[in-house]
Design goal:
globular; mainly alpha; 5% strand
């Protein structure tokens, strides 16, 4: 595959606009912040821009001073930012809070089916014995990260358990795509829809885990095979515009940016894991597609709103995409940041990655 072609400064400028716009949003200690700030932390890793770190420290410190609310599976996603801040600053408070969140998952989170987390969006919503693919990012990936950082096999193995359990319940054997949810009481995948952002949660977190989990661990090849087969289907569903439809196998569904960015980031990280630029042509198209959805003021456009497991495909196609969303900001940052140190890229060439036009948005 040929090298990617993009201007590094174009990518950095887009990242800077997205970060700036993100910190003009108001967040609580919950998953919109968890995904948005994870994206900012990835931007900091990729650019070493101290302004991004200062933003993160200021927001987290203010929240810790006020006291964090009762935890849910989704709210634990802010643990990603705590781990990144600890790595950058060595401030023990960040690590202590992250451990507290991991211990909550270990001892208090509701489980079913031999240890799978029941998905909890917030304190206000309860979905008995349901597994949602979102949990792979919010809690599973977090446990793998903190378990590896601290040498805590109990955290690591619990995170891997979540990956394998969600694969068992959610990955379709025929298409290798991931369903959004599983209802253990009913014994089915509810609407059985292949949702773009859901597939990105699975693909991105598995691609990251391949860089963390030892290749000699039995779980490594389970994740590798699951991701390999999922990506081989997803790349064949990419639109000519470089994005994926919000129902990935339905070309009548709208193109959705957050899921597309997450899938594209997974392709980057998978290529790095296997040591070959196998999916470069799809990543190249995604660069143009994602950049075309970044407005002048840094709003990531065409991001679907918060999405429960809807009743049918039409429900997903009806989810609004008008407003700025923290997860859209975060996943766009994850993808664009992943490009900056990518081995198979020609950063001297120009023009191919320019957005079609800049769009102002609230």
């Amino acid at each position: 595959m040929p090298n990617l072609i993009f201007q590094e400064q174009t990518i950095k400028d887009a990242i800077d606009r997205i970060v700036d716009r993100t910190f003009k949003m108001d967040f609580t200690w919950d998953w919109p912040a968890g995904v948005a700030l994870y994206g900012v932390s990835q931007a900091y890793r990729a650019t070493n821009n101290e302004k991004y770190l200062e933003h993160l420290v200021r927001w987290v410190d203010e929240q810790l001073e006020e006291g964090i609310p009762p935890l849910t599976v989704n709210a634990v996603s802010i643990g990603h930012t705590l781990l990144s801040l600890y790595e950058a600053t060595q401030q023990q408070t960040y690590l202590d809070t992250a451990v507290r969140m991991a211990e909550h998952l270990k001892h208090e989170a509701v489980r079913f089916a031999d240890g799978i987390f029941q998905h909890t969006v917030s304190q206000n919503y309860n979905f008995p014995e349901q597994a949602w693919v979102d949990t792979m990012f919010m809690a599973g990936y977090f446990l793998i990260r903190i378990g590896t950082l601290l040498g805590r096999d109990d955290f690591l193995e619990d995170g891997l358990l979540q990956y394998h359990g969600h694969e068992e319940f959610l990955q379709d054997e025929k298409t290798n795509l991931y369903y959004h949810g599983w209802d253990n009481l009913a014994g089915n995948n509810m609407s059985a829809v292949f949702w773009a952002r859901g597939n990105s949660w699975a693909a991105y977190t598995m691609s990251q885990a391949l860089h963390i989990v030892e290749v000699t661990h039995p779980s490594y090849m389970k994740m590798y095979d699951s991701l390999r087969d999922q990506l081989s289907t997803l790349v064949r569903l990419q639109s000519e515009e470089g994005l994926w439809h919000t129902v990935v196998n339905d070309p009548t569904a709208y193109l959705e940016t957050s899921g597309s960015a997450g899938i594209a980031a997974a392709l980057v990280r998978y290529n790095e894991a296997i040591g070959a630029p196998m999916y470069n042509k799809y990543i190249q198209k995604a660069i143009s597609g994602v950049l075309s959805r970044v407005s002048d003021n840094g709003t990531v456009l065409d991001v679907s709103a918060g999405t429960a497991v809807m009743k049918d495909a039409e429900g997903y196609k009806g989810v609004p995409r008008k407003r700025i969303q923290g997860w859209g900001q975060g996943l766009a940052l994850v993808f664009l940041s992943s490009l900056l140190h990518y081995k198979w890229a020609d950063r001297a060439a120009g023009g191919a990655d320019q957005p079609a036009e800049a769009v102002d948005a609230v």
